[in-house]
Design the sequence.
């Protein structure tokens, strides 16, 4: 059910101040935030808020819960509200309700996906079966106790969703690397881990960039689960200095139970992180020995040094593609769910510039994928830039050009970019799907 502002008087309450007894400056600042994310229980108790303190949002949480219950009692489900310049999106995942309030460029579908990422991140620390069992046994249970300590994961996820193309594209971005070192990493992992009992996935990552992935046969790592792992690793500073061992639920793989993640960086000279995911909770020492052997093999063949150089070099520039008048692009291969994009050009190098860039991408992506009329191509000409979206059975491509570029020229230049991507696919993508 999609409700507009003139249909529901409760909309204004959701855009109001969280606590009337606080100072005017404080709740004006709170209200003027670009985006709010809330998580509450079905009983209306606050669990998480992106801004402000949950304790001061009890009344607001009650309003949101009342809205959802009112529509449910009428035999429908509440999806979104619109009031003024705000879009308010609801995602009901019993026993939780997730709400996004945004003044940004995201449409309802994009905000719903962002809330889905939030829900999956919560499930990474408390499984769906645990949530269901507790809610059935204790109706008014304070779920903040279960997610305590995971707030940093949720905060960092929100920041990443707003700033990283991979979340908009539902994809994984690989570290740009020559085929030789990448193949050497895969070979090292396969040779060491092939006989380790109950090992399901082995990943080598740098931030949220994938360097290598080996999996057990017939099992695949969903991009959402991959981002959950990367988010937990990058949010936990202790992993940078000591070996880590952490239970983790991968909801797209199995939302009812935990796996166990061994986490360790390769060396001081190679800031890549090895993550070994297993179903065996007693295998820490075996995986620790495996990491040592993998690191030794990477050092011996020179792969560790090449990876360190690639990490230090950062993302490639759009100028390397040789495409004229292009400022930036993002590309997704649909068959592999892998994406690539260059570093933002000088026009978008600042924090404000990057926000503008991704706002433009959200607008064009939303129009391309509009439920009422999806498009294959979309050309958006503004006073400061031209943005083009192109979706085919095999790929999605979004590109930003100088403002004078015509539609015909943009398509011609995007075809040139596709040829460059094809020529460099072994460096920017992982081809094949290695198994133990």
Sequence:
């Amino acid at each position: 059910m999609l409700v507009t502002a003139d249909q529901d008087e409760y909309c204004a309450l959701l855009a109001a101040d969280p606590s009337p007894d606080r100072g005017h400056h404080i709740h004006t600042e709170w209200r003027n935030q670009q985006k709010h994310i809330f998580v509450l229980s079905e009983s209306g108790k606050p669990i998480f808020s992106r801004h402000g303190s949950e304790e001061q949002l009890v009344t607001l949480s009650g309003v949101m819960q009342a809205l959802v219950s009112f529509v449910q009692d009428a035999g429908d489900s509440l999806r979104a509200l619109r009031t003024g310049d705000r879009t308010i999106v609801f995602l009901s995942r019993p026993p939780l309700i997730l709400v996004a309030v945004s003044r940004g460029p995201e449409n309802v579908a994009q905000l719903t996906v962002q809330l889905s990422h939030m829900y999956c991140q919560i499930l990474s620390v408390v499984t769906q079966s645990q949530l269901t069992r507790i809610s059935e046994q204790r109706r008014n249970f304070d779920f903040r106790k279960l997610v305590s300590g995971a707030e940093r994961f949720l905060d960092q996820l929100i920041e990443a969703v707003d700033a990283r193309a991979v979340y908009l594209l539902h994809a994984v971005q690989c570290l740009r690397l020559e085929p030789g070192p990448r193949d050497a990493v895969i070979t090292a992992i396969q040779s060491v881990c092939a006989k380790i009992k109950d090992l399901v996935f082995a990943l080598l990552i740098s931030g949220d960039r994938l360097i290598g992935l080996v999996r057990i046969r017939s099992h695949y790592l969903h991009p959402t689960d991959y981002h959950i792992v990367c988010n937990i690793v990058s949010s936990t500073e202790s992993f940078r200095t000591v070996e880590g061992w952490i239970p983790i639920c991968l909801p797209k793989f199995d939302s009812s139970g935990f796996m166990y993640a061994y986490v360790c960086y390769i060396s001081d000279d190679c800031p890549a992180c090895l993550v070994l995911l297993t179903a065996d909770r007693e295998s820490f020492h075996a995986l620790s020995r495996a990491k040592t052997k993998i690191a030794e093999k990477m050092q011996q063949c020179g792969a560790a040094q090449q990876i360190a150089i690639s990490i230090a070099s950062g993302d490639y520039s759009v100028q390397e593609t040789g495409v004229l008048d292009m400022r930036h692009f993002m590309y997704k291969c649909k068959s592999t769910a892998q994406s690539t994009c260059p570093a933002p050009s000088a026009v978008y190098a600042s924090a404000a510039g990057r926000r503008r860039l991704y706002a433009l991408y959200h607008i064009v992506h939303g129009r391309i994928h509009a439920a009422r009329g999806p498009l294959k191509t979309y050309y958006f000409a503004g006073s400061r830039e031209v943005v083009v979206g192109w979706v085919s059975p095999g790929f999605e491509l979004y590109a930003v050009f100088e403002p004078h570029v015509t539609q015909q020229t943009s398509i011609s230049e995007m075809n040139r970019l596709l040829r460059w991507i094809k020529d460099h696919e072994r460096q920017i993508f992982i081809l094949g799907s290695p198994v133990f």
Q: What stands out?
A: DSSP finds 16 helices and 17 strands in the chain. Residues 205 and 273 are 5 Å apart (CA to CA). Confidence is low (pLDDT under 50) at residues 1-26. The first strand starts at residue 2 and ends at 4.
